[in-house]
Structure formats: C-alpha cells, structure tokens
Amino acid sequence: MRVLITGVAGFIGSNLAGKFLSNGHSVIGIDKFSDYYSRAQKEFNLSKLISHREFNFIETDLMWAGLEEALKNSDIIFHLAAQPGVLHSWGENFNIYVRNNILATQYLLEILKYHPEKPLIFASSSSVYGNTYHIPMNEENILNPISPYGLTKLTCEKLLELYHGAWGIKYLCLRFFTVFGPGQRPDMAIHKFLKAALHKEKISIYGDGEQRRDFTYIETLTDFLLGIIDNKKWGITLNVGGGKYITVNEAVSMISSIAGKKMDVQYIEKQKGDMNETLADIDRAAELFDYAPSFNIEDGIASQWEWIKNFYA
Ligand code: UGA
C-alpha cells in the first residue's frame, strides 16, 4: 500500500515509516522541520529511512504546495504532524498551536473532501480528556481539556466529525497516550530523565511526582497502526494506550535502576495544563481491532536507554 505520513521526521512518524517500509509498503513522508525541537534529532530519525527506495521525502509545510500531489499518490493518510507539547501551549505560543494543529488539519480535510475514498488516520491525544472524573478514560467520557494543546486536538476531532458528516471523509481518530521509546521527543519526561542520567544532570519533577501516566511503548503503537491499514470501519474514535499507569516517581526509579545511576531530583511547582492522571480504557480498541498491548514498561525504557546513549554519543 502507498502510505502518506505527515510529520514523518518526528518521533512517532519516523518509527511508523520504518514499520511500513519493513513490511513491504511504500511511504511518502512530509515534514516541515518545525523548530519545536532540534532539526538534528529529526534528521537522525530520518537517516534510517532516507536511503530506502520505497521512501519518498518531501520537506514542506502542510499548507504549502505539495500536499495535494502527495495525497493523489497515496492510498491512506496518517496525519501525525502537529505542534506538540502540552505545557508550552499557553500564552502567545497558542497561535502556533492553532496554526499547526487546527488550521493545518482543516486544510488537509479540505483537500481530502475531493478524495473521500482515501482514509485518514488522525493522531489525537489523551489530553482531550483533561482531569476526568472517570478513570480509566473511556471514549464516552465528557471531554474537558485543561491545556490549550488539548483544546486544539479536541477541535481537530470535531473537524473530523464535521467533514465525515458533510463530505463522507473516512477517518479513524486515535487518542495516543504518552508514547515513549527510541526516538522520543527531547521535551518528554522519559527522554529528559534518561538524558540527565547519562550526563549526570539534575532533573525537575513537576509537583510531587505522584501524577500518573499511561506510558505507551512506540512499537505497540506502530504495530497497531500497521494492523489497521486494511480497516473498513470509519468514523470511529478510540484510545490507543497501554491500559496501565505508573507515577512519574515510579518512572524515575525505573530509569535510575536501568541506567545504574542515582538520580539527582528537584521537585518544582506543578505545571498548568498537566493532567493528574491518564489511563486508557482500551476495551473499544480490543473489541474492534483485537488490540492487546503486552509491553513491559521496564523493557521499553531499557530500549530507549540504548537509543539515548547512541544518540548522544
Ligand atoms: C505527552 C506528549 O507530550 C503529548 O504530545 C501527548 O499529546 C500526550 O503525551 C498524550 O498522551 O496525549 P505528557 O503526558 O505530559 O504529554 O508527557 P511527558 O512530557 O512525557 O510528561 C509525563 C509526566 O512527566 C507529566 O506529568 C509531566 O509533568 C512530568 N514531567 C515531565 C516532569 O515531572 N518533569 C519533566 O521535566 C517533564
């Protein structure tokens, strides 16, 4: 199959492209190298893909030229390009989140309405839930994002529904839960903590560290995404998480024992927009797509530790 991946140089995009290529598919990847984090890490992500003859890379902003042509040459679209980072989305940054999340997604949908036979897989986020009264987070929960980032992802979800209703666009809206593993973004907790362990630096834990996350291993996610390309059920929203959670303090202890280093920890104030806990109810994914994550978080951190040592070497 010919797969189009937006945000292909990012953490999830590059891992997903590798997964499709190694399973005999061809990939058109688009990325604009936004400056949210270093171009060097994104080029490192791409370096393992770029020589593959079934990989075609286009450096462009989604809202510039190139998208329509790429879309015509694809059978399915994985829309992962976004302005990430829950805690950075306040203040004047919000403008960038509106542009790169809401407007770019609406632009893509406008093109897709002329190609309604091409399905769109959208990367949404656990952050659409906010501090929910109901754990595990079920797709039927009331959605109350507590960060501007979460609000932009929720708006994208609503846009999918609108375009599905009006134009028959086929979509799957997938809510990802704190994905980690080799290639993880440098602003995310596990990457920051492993890097600090490597360089013997201090880490900052926001609040008391008792906030809990459903950390999802990257390969669990990419295996799932590979498995859904022949899907015929559309207009569905579902959680793709690990289905279990640990505290940030527990994650730091695991990192300390995997890296064999005592962590130098300072506790600082809780950050606005940071959810108290996330935990995916994965029953819908299990029922519709036989989703059954079986990863072990320590093994996932250990493989990310190997990646971190190699990346920073
Ligand atoms: C992550 C991603 O950053 C989002 O892009 C994604 O949409 C979201 O997951 C999701 O699940 O949808 P987050 O869960 O905040 O967001 O992931 P991390 O940045 O890895 O943070 C995990 C926890 O560690 C948070 O509670 C955060 O406050 C804490 N943390 C992070 C610290 O205590 N110190 C740090 O230096 C970094």
What does this structure look like?
The protein has 313 residues and is an alpha/beta fold. The protein has one domain: Rossmann fold. It has helices at residues 11-22, 39-47, 67-72, 94-112, 148-167, 189-199, 218-227, 248-259, 283-289, 297-312, and strands at residues 2-6, 26-31, 55-59, 76-79, 120-125, 171-176, 179-180, 202-206, 212-213, 216-217, 236-240, 246-247, 264-268. Strands 3-2-1-4-5-6-11 form a seven-stranded parallel sheet, sandwiched between helices. A two-stranded parallel ribbon has the order 7-10. The chain has a two-stranded parallel ribbon with strand order 8-13. Strand 4, helix 4 (94-112) and strand 5 (120-125) form a beta-alpha-beta unit. The radius of gyration is 19 Å and the shape is globular. The two termini are 36 Å apart. The model has no long low-confidence stretch (mean pLDDT 97). The structure holds uridine-5'-diphosphate-glucuronic acid. Uridine-5'-diphosphate-glucuronic acid (UGA) binds at residues 84-86, 125-127, 176-178, 188-189, 192, 204-206, 211, 213, 248, 271, 274, 278.
Short description:
The chain is α/β, with parallel strands linked by helices and 313 residues long.
CATH class term: Alpha Beta
* Residue share in β-strands: 15-25%
Low-confidence stretches: none
Total strands: the figure is: 13
Question: How many structural units, i.e. domains?
Answer: 1
The N- to C-terminal Cα distance equals: 36 Å
What kind of sheet is the major sheet?
7 strands, parallel
Query: What ligands are attached or bound here?
Result: uridine-5'-diphosphate-glucuronic acid
Output the CATH topology: Rossmann fold
